[in-house]
Specification:
Elements (H helix, E strand, L loop, with lengths): L1 H6 L5 H62 L8 E5 L3 H11 L12 H8 L5 E9 L3 E8 L2 E5 L2 H5 L2 E4 L4 E3 L3 H5 L3 E3 L17 H13 L8 E6 L4 E5 L4 E4 L13 H20 L5 E4 L10 E2 L7
Parallel strand pairs: 1-3, 4-7, 7-8, 10-11
Antiparallel strand pairs: 2-3, 4-5, 5-6, 8-9, 9-10, 11-12
């Protein structure tokens, strides 16, 4: 009947078509990802193979280089060590380094570890630096730069050991008692006992070393001969050879590393004028005070006198 047609269920063809059309892009994406994954694996394999090849080539090359070096150098009897030369001014230091280095004649020249040998030699306190070189076919050359003392340490414990100090503040033993006694003595520094290899920087000795540096590197050293420096909290008392005790304080900000302090140099030049004027008048000074900022206008001396006359 007519109403039977209306009661029959309709097939939902359009719904299934939509579902089928929606699944197609997902499959295409999965196929693309799989292709990219295979391409990435292939590239990774090539990179890994190249890395392994380079590593193996490097190891083989290194091994071949060592073997060639051994045949040409370290195992070659042409480069047998027959002589070694140590250049320095002190004969005692030359003998000491010869014993410390432990170099054996007859070994191969290229089996001597120059870096390690240089490090061991430079541990000696009175050696500033060492330069070691090979001279083919069989000579080892060692050039030493020694430390030269500028003062001796005067505290009781250090005085007995004849400890001296160089311009950098490094402590080492004097060559002899007479050589130590000829140097200016420094007292009043912090710390009781010093040992060779210690540094005096930070103990208050910087002022004494600065004073000696000006005296040793400028013309004031022709007039001012220091024999003893005592370090105070805010001043330096310097005893001159056959002269007065000079009390000094200066502006530390006017100095640069490796360059004499300008303020200190000017005060010492002024002191040279005071000493020359006293010598002309026949006045024997016992003390000179150069600690004030206006020392050029008022310079207390003992005995009191006018340097301008």
């Amino acid at each position: 009947m007519w109403f039977d047609k209306d009661l029959k269920p309709r097939r939902k063809r359009s719904h299934f078509k939509k579902n089928r059309t929606r699944q197609r892009p997902v499959l295409r994406v999965n196929a693309r990802l799989a292709g990219k994954r295979k391409e990435w694996v292939a590239r990774s394999g090539i990179v890994l193979l190249l890395a392994v090849t380079v590593g193996v080539a490097f190891l083989l090359g290194n091994f071949a280089l060592k073997e060639a070096r051994g045949l040409l150098l370290s195992d070659n009897p042409e480069y047998t060590l027959t002589n070694y030369v140590i250049k320095c001014e002190s004969e005692s230091l030359r003998q000491f380094v010869s014993e410390q280095a432990g170099i054996k004649v007859g070994t191969n020249l290229f089996l001597v570890d120059i870096g390690k040998l240089q490090e061991e030699i430079e541990k000696t306190p009175n050696i500033r630096s060492a330069v070691i070189s090979r001279i083919l076919p069989g000579t080892l050359k060692i050039e030493l730069v020694e430390r030269f003392p500028v003062a001796r340490l005067g505290n009781r414990a250090d005085r007995r050991k004849y400890l001296v100090v160089d311009e950098e503040g490094v402590v080492f033993l004097a060559r002899s008692r007479s050589s130590a006694d000829a140097l200016p003595m420094i007292t009043g520094y912090a710390g009781r006992r010093r040992s060779p290899g210690n540094s005096m920087i930070g103990s208050g000795c910087e002022d004494a070393l600065a004073l000696l540096d000006v005296c040793n590197t400028t013309k004031v050293g022709d007039v001012i001969k220091v024999t003893h420096i005592d370090l105070g909290d805010k001043y330096v008392a310097a005893k001159l050879v056959n002269g007065p005790i000079v009390f000094l304080a200066w502006d530390k900000s006017k100095g640069e590393k490796g360059v004499p302090n300008k303020d200190l140099e000017e005060r010492l030049e002024f002191l040279c004028g005071v000493l020359r004027a006293a010598d002309r008048r026949g006045v024997s000074l016992r003390r000179v005070n150069l600690m004030s900022d206006n020392y050029t206008e008022y310079c207390p001396t003992d005995p009191r006198w006018d340097r301008r006359n």
